[in-house]
Amino acid sequence: MFTDSFLVQKGKTCRVSLILAGFFIFFSLMACSTEDRGRTISQFRFDSLSINGFINETDKTILAVVPPGTDITSLVPKISHEGESIRPESQVEQDFSNPVVYKVKAESGQTGSYTVTVAVSDIPVMLLNTPESVPVTSTEEWVSESTYSLIDSSGTETAGETKIKGRGFSTWNFMPKKPYSLKLSEKAGFFGMPEDKRWALLANYADKTLLRNEVALKLGREMLQNMSWSPDSEQVVLYFNSEYQGVYQLTEQIKIDGDRVDIESIEDFDPSIDDYKNFGYLLEVDERMDEEFYFTTTQGVIFTCKDPDEDLENVFDLIVADVQEAEDAIYSPGFADTTDGYAKYIDTDSFIDWYLANEITKNRDAIFFSSCYMYFDPADKKYHMGPIWDFDISLGNIYYDGCDITDGFYIKNAKWISRLFQDTAFAGKVKSRWNEKRTDIYTLLGFIDDRAAEMNSSQTYNFYKWDILNTWVWPNKIVTGSYEGEIDYLKSWLENRLDWLDSQYQ
């Protein structure tokens, strides 16, 4: 039996041993860290391209994705390292047709090796740079005097000045791969899209196919055209302040403009001489209420004023009253009357196409929660639904609210929409529109295959930077472990969804 004094002495001995062991581990780690620094590459850069290679210290590799048209047989890297020497040498022309091993020699004589891979991008490359590499930290404040450069698949460069800020809510606040808004100093058109100053760069972090937004926008732009305009886009590789960021979607920003939402803006309204109904405005259903001007209808729908979004004091009450008048007509006893019912206030065809785009994709946020756009067109004095937006957590990429299940209606339960379906004429038009466009809509399955093949190498490098294919990311339904698995799941989900809808509408 142990005495109390022995236990005390033993406890002291154990504590001393633990302390000594801790010192040993600490100094061992410090020694290893010092040795590693002596054998470490801290920067690998191509000054001629204004890009840095992405350094992965875990497997001692460096990746540089260079713009289309780059001759990788004679690039000159500028290398910063902690060692005594490096071979091959820094700032010496090198052929990167195959991976090149660089060895850093420390003063101790030990060496560290890095395998450098230089890949010519299979999609266009965009470079954004802020003055003195100032970070973008806000979705409200623009970073001015920034620059952009876009090198397309032919190697042609478009460049200019821009302002940059963050964009989005969940994607900006909770995800490491950040989306951005651009306001160019001069209008520019990319990939055949009309010239404009406003563009968005979508990160699509939670969507491991990187394609859900593009698929949905194609659905609206080419198949459900009664919304009059849906944004166009192109996949690009993004470098931000010379650092590789992966694959982004360069997209037309939703706004009032002749080549986008083509209406006369109410910002030009002069109350002393004009009738305000000769001017239009863009609204968004958004329960986050993240605009200066917003209101709630009697049915509980929260609208924000999106464009214009300021200086609306003279017309805000008029907008609120007009939207409420339209909602009252939708919920009135005689709402189905073709003369004095809802058809007097809304463009039915745009509502049907908006509904189908969001029902096909089972877009959770489109149940009149957020990113649901509607505009007043002074040409016909009616409200039009659209443009469509924000589909990264649609098409089965979500685990809740039943939006992962391919069966069942969802958007049909949204405010306004559920009421419209109580009109048999409206429901009949939805069915007719489906049967008119169903063959075209099924071609989206082939588009997914083609698009995934076109960006095969760029997606590989994206997930080298963002190593999440084996990781659950909110709000993923499944984790497939591979890009091919993600594409297969997207196609299978969409095909089953279309088949179910077809069974309802045939």
Which characteristics define this entry?
506 residues, alpha+beta, Immunoglobulin-like, 3 domains, 7-stranded mixed β-barrel, 5-stranded mixed sheet, 20 strands, 24% strand, disordered N terminus
Structure, explained:
- The structure is a single chain.
- Strands 9-10-11-12-13-15-14 form a 7-stranded mixed barrel. The chain has a 5-stranded mixed sheet with strand order 3-4-8-7-6, covered by helices on one side.
- A hairpin with a 5-residue loop joins strand 17 (294-296) and strand 18 (302-307).
- It contains 10 helices and 20 strands.
- The chain has helices spanning 4-38, 170-174, 212-223, 316-330, 348-361, 417-420, 424-442, 444-454, 456-465, 483-505, and strands at residues 41-46, 51-52, 54-56, 61-66, 78-81, 85-87, 100-105, 111-120, 125-129, 143-151, 157-166, 180-188, 196-202, 233-240, 243-252, 281-285, 294-296, 302-307, 372-377, 382-385.
- The longest helix is centred in the first third of the chain and has 35 residues, at 4-38.
- It is elongated and about 90 Å long.
- It is 29% helix and 24% strand.
- Mean pLDDT is 93; it is low at 1-35.
- The protein folds into 3 domains: 41-120, Immunoglobulin-like, CATH 2.60.40; 125-252, no CATH class; 267-435, no CATH class.
- The chain has 506 residues and is an alpha+beta fold.
Order of helices and strands: HEEEEEEEEEEEHEEHEEEEEHHEEHHHHH
User: Strand percentage, roughly?
Assistant: 15-25%
Distance between the termini: 86 Å
Query: Which percent bin holds the helix content?
Result: 25-40%
The gross shape turns out to be: elongated
The count of domains is 3
Mean pLDDT: 93
The total strand number stands at: 20
Sheet with the most strands? 7 strands, mixed, barrel
Q: Given the structure, what is the number of helices?
A: 10
Regions with little confidence, pLDDT below 50 for 5+ residues? 1-35
Structural class: alpha+beta
Spatial sequence of strands, sheet with the most strands: 9-10-11-12-13-15-14
Cα-based radius of gyration, to the nearest Å = 28 Å
